[in-house]
Each structure stands twice: as C-alpha cells, then as structure tokens.
Amino acid sequence: xxxxxxxxxxxxxxxxxxxxxxxxxxxxxxxxxxxxxxxxxxxxxxxxxxxxxxxxxxxxxxxxxxxxxxxxxxxxxxxxxxxxxxxxxxxxxxxxxxxxxxxxxxxxxxxxxxxxxxxxxxxxxxxxxxxxxxxxxxxxxxxxxxxxxxxxxxxxxxxxxxxxxxxxxxxxxxxxxxxxxxxxxxxxxxxxxxxxxxxxxxxxxxxxxxxxxxxxxxxxxxxxxxxxxxxxxxxxxxxxxxxxxxxxxxxxxxxxxxxxxxxxxxxxxxxxxxxxxxxxxxxxxxxxxxxxxxxxxxxxxxxxxxxxxxxxxxxxxxxxxxxxxxxxxxxxxxxxxxxxxxxxxxxxxxxxxxxxxxxxxxxxxxxxxxxxxxxxxxxxxxxxxxxxxxxxxxxxxxxxxxxxxxxxxxxxxxxxxxxxxxxxxxxxxxxxxxxxxxxxxxxxxxxxxxxxxxxxxxxxxxxxxxxxxxxxxxxxxxxxxxxxxxxxxxxxxxxxxxxxxxxxxxxxxxxxxxxxxxxxxxxxxxxxxxxxxxxxxxxxxxxxxxxxxxxxxxxxxxxxxxxxxxxxxxxxxxxxxxxxxxxxxxxxxxxxxxxxxxxxxxxxxxxxxxxxxxxxxxxxxxxxxxxxxxxxxxxxxxxxxxxxxxxxxxxxxxxxxxxxxxxxxxxxxxxxxxxxxxxxxxxxxxxxxxxxxxxxxxxxxxxxxxxxxxxxxxxxxxxxxxxxxxxxxxxxxxxxxxxxxxxxxxxxxxxxxxxxxxxxxx
Length: 762
Fold this sequence. Notes:
Radius of gyration: 32 Å
Largest sheet: none
Helix content: over 70%
Structural class: mainly alpha
Number of helices: 26
Low-confidence stretches: 749-762
Distance between the termini: 80 Å
Number of domains: 2
Keywords: Membrane, Phosphate transport, Transmembrane, Transmembrane helix, Transport
Mean pLDDT: 80
InterPro entries: Phos_transporter
GO molecular function, one term: phosphate transmembrane transporter activity
Strand content: under 5%
Number of strands: 0
Subcellular location: Membrane
Protein name: Phosphate transporter
C-alpha cells in the first residue's frame, strides 16, 4: 500500500516538473512583455536578467507554500486517502489546462487555476462526506477554509480593477511629465522618477522579500523593521542622485529601470507563483511522510491529516531544483514567445495586425467612451486641451527599431506591477501575476492613447477575450477537478492510474500537435518588415509582395476547393462538402485580416502612388472575396442535395462538365503562375481564353435548360444543382479575370512614374 502511494507522490513531482515548464511558459508574459515590447535589449539579454530574477525568487520562496497545505481545505477533517485524491486531481487538471492555454497563445493564471482546482476538489469531497456523515455534525465550514478561500478569490479579482486604475493613472501622469519625446523633457525629472522607481523596487525586493529568506536571522529582521523609514529615505536620496548622474553621463535611465523591473518582477513571480507549481506536490510529500511515520497501522481512510495544519518548511533542495527548472524553461520555451506576442500586440502603440476581431460588447464600450470623450472636450478649456495634446503628440514618439511601445510605458508597467505583486506576496495573498501585469499593461496603453478609433474595438475585444479566458479557467478548473476527484474517490487506484495515463497522453499529444502547428505556420515576415521600414520605396516593394502572396494563395485555394466541391457533388461525398464549407469560412476571416494589413501598408507609401494603386488593390481584394462567395454559392446547394440523399447527377452531365472544369482549372493555374512570377506576357492570351471559356459555359447552360424541359421529375433537383454549378462557374471565370487585371496594374506597368514620385517624396 505504501509503495503505491510513494509512486503517486513521485508522479506528483513529475507533474510538478511539467507544471514548472508549462507554467513558466505561460507566465513569461508577466515579467518579459514590457522589456520585449520596448526592445530595451536583445531578447537573450532580457532572458538572462529574467532568469536571474526567477532563480533568486525561487530560492527565497517559502511562506506561500501554506496555501496548498491548509489555505483552502481543513486537513484535520480529511483522511490521507482523501487528501491524496484532491492533490492528484489538482495536478492532473492543472498541467493539462495550462498546456491548452499556452498552445492557444492566451495568457492564463496559474494562481487562479490552482486555487479553483483546490476549491473544486475540496468542495466535492466535502459534499460527499457531509452526505455520508451519519452524525449530521459535519458542515461545509468544517471541511473548507471558507474565509481564507474567499479572501484569496477576492484578492485575485480585485487585483484586476486595482491594476487597471493604477496603470491608467500612473501612466497618464508619467506621460504628462515626459511626453512622447521623453528625451527632450528629462532635465531633473528623470532623477526623481528613477529614484522613486529603483527605491520602490529595492524596498520590496531587498527588505520585504528578505523576510522569507532562510538565511536572515531574527536580529537582522528586527533591525530592518526598526529602521525601515531611514533605509527607504536613504535609498531614495542615493538612487535619485545616481540616476541623475547616470543621465548626465548619457546613460539611458529608462533602460536601467526596465531591466531592473524585469528582474524584480521575475523575482516576485517566482516567490508568489512557485506555490502554484510545487506547493501541491510538496503537500502530498508531507502527507505521505506523516502517514508512513505516524500511522501506526491505521488505514488510509482513517488516518487524518492534522499535520498539514502546521506551516510549511520547504527543504532548500526543492527550492533550488525548482529554480533550475524554471530558468531552463524560460530559456528554451517556444510557447513563451507565443504568449508574449498576444500581450505585446494588444498594448502596441502603433497600428498593425490585430489578432482579434470585433465584438458587440467592445463596440458598445467604444461608443460610450467616444461619447464621454466628446463631453470632456466641451468641458475642458481649449488652452488646457492644446497643452495636454502637445504632451501626447504621437508624431514625436521615440521607439526602438521594431518596438511596440516606448521605454517610459515599459518602466511604468514593470515598476507598478512589481509593487502590486510583491505587496500581495508579503501579505501572503496569492494575487495573480498574470492578472496584474496584463491589466496594468492594458491600463497604461489606454492612458497612452494607443487605442485609436480604428483599433480600439479590436484591442478591447482582445482584452475581453483574455479576461473571459481567465473566468473560463476558473470555472473549468473547478468543474474538472471536482469531477476527477469524485471519480478517483470512488474508483481508488484504478481511477488514479487511468487519469495519470490520460494526463501523460494529453501532454504528449499536445506537444506533438504544437510542434506540427509551429512548423506549418508561416510567419508573416513581409508584413512585419513593411511596418518596420521607414523607406517608402521598400514599403511599396514589400506591399506588392504581400498583395502578390494574397492573390496567388486565394487563386490556389479557390481552384482546389472548386475541385473538391464538384467532386463531392459528383461522388456524393458529404464529408468533403462539409470540409469545404468550413474551410471557406476560415478563408473569409483570413482574407479580412490580410486586407487590413495591406491597407495599413497603403497608408505608408506616398499619397500619389496610393491613390493610383488604390483602385486596383481593392479590385483584387474584392475579387478574392467574390471567389469565396462563389464557392459558397456552389457548395451550399450541393451539400444540401447530398445530405438529403437526392438522386445523383446524370452521367451525361458529368461527361460534359469535366472537360470544362479541366479547362477552367488550367487557366487558373496559368493565372497563378503569371502573378507569382510577376510576368504578364501571357496575360492577354489568358484573358482571351477565359472569355472563350465563358461562352462555352453559357452554351452548356442553355443546353442544360433545354434538357430540363424534357427531363423527368426524379432528376429535376440534381439538374437544378448542376445548372447552379454552371452559372457560378461562369461567374468564377469573370472574377479571376478581374483579379488578373487588378494584379497586372497594381504590380507593374508604371515603374518609371512611380520611381519619379518616390524621388519627389523623399
């Protein structure tokens, strides 16, 4: 029996290793997004700074482990078997849940997942124990630490409101002081700003953080408590002078603050969130050692876990090993970059590709905010408005090459987030680092006017999607863990073994699928280079390349889908028709994103060229859209016909249609090749043959209508669908002929004139 539970404890630690790897991938967004978004240093340098902070935080973390031991449940009223059911269910649910969110590229909260998993597992067992209690003396309060659980939940969700308000106000004040052209408005303010920032971080990291360090003696802690005010005042004076001197020495003080803030936030993350990764396995290990040492022959259902009521004394070796694993995960994780990208894109200062669409709620919020802004414009005096606007002049923004926002905002994000998180840590209240850092970044981007009229609806939708994901995390974590715990409770080792196998299988499958997805996805380097370039000639060249890729991709997709849908109708393959319907919807969404990117590129080229190319660009883009609608109009009646098991199309119709289809596809292949090679020598011949093909299809339509007059009623439905295919095929030929013309005039034929325009606008 003991050997089986030793195996479970070992598996808990194995899951803890996976949890550390997955959790750090998810939470890297918390302490790296500001440094990465502002491009304060190379990615490798940022990783090193964050890794040092993570390792230091892991070594100093200890007091927070009590949350997993007795923060949620009352261990004195649970047996060893029941505690092991809860802890194993928590780890199985946690690892899989976090890996799913990482794969989707959405930041979620390790704190929320752990707390709600513990709540779910404890709640279901508490209910089962109360139902089975013959004495009727047990209550939910005896089973769960309801007061502590409520304070933890309130702390987590209140942090959202506090972080957003604080981020908005502090960033607004900071921008008023420094403006976007912050290098011209530093003078003496940078010393004070740097002094406040570094003193704040030093106070919480070195003074508050050291309280839980194992090497600090009681005398040292007492002396720090008695002289806190003096230490803070001394640090402020020293760091203010140091930052001012560094500024005079031409050192970028903001860069120092951001890197120091990254270190501090990484340290706070490790100290605050390490409990989310190893707290549960350590509680399981403690329960196992207590059972082995003190059970005296008592059964696993009778030995109660009163020992977990004591505070955790985590062996240093566990903290050291956890720090090593977290540093390794941070340095090697590819998923971390995916999650960071989501947060950085939502906080981006300039326009660019928007990851999210628009939603009804986001549109309502934007309309209300616009109305409030119009009211404020009427109330605030014109002179004050002009002065405020001068401090928010985006034309003067100083961005590093490829940066999403400037260093002023990065510094505010990190300093403010670090303060809020370490305050929560010192109060032993597990604030969500994800919630705090993400919402601070959203508040500061709002204060920086990064959400313009044309991007606000997308940014708000993205923010609501992420926050919605957090609430889904809480609900799913609670529900799944409760279900898993109940099954394990009733099925004993059989259920435990099955869920262990399921967890391993899901993790392996998830990582294999993510690797395949990563290889399959082509990064849109063309768009990134187009938005980063300051050379208008290069922007035009990259825009042409991007448009060419779009047109060729959609011609290629249309040809393949046309073949699939007609084959599906001829062969009565319902599965294939459904697949085409679904993929066409996906392509419509993708086309919308591509069009937005290309419109942003049009705005970055000289106005005369943009005006000249605008018509051809929209003709090409609309042609792509019309091809998709044409496919939809072909596919829907075919799918309905096959789904209803109506009579198939006649062999005569198939025989006359296939040559037409072959000719259409060959011409589309030629069109794709012409556009891909940017050589339009064959364009006139393709257009002529396309026009001839339209005439052939028109003749077939007339022939089919005559045939329908004489056909029996049993084949009428199939004949109607076939007639629709011919009509839409004729329309499809017209559409790609328009697309060929649009590409021809967008890509070339005016090179000398464009070169002259570019030389005039430089």
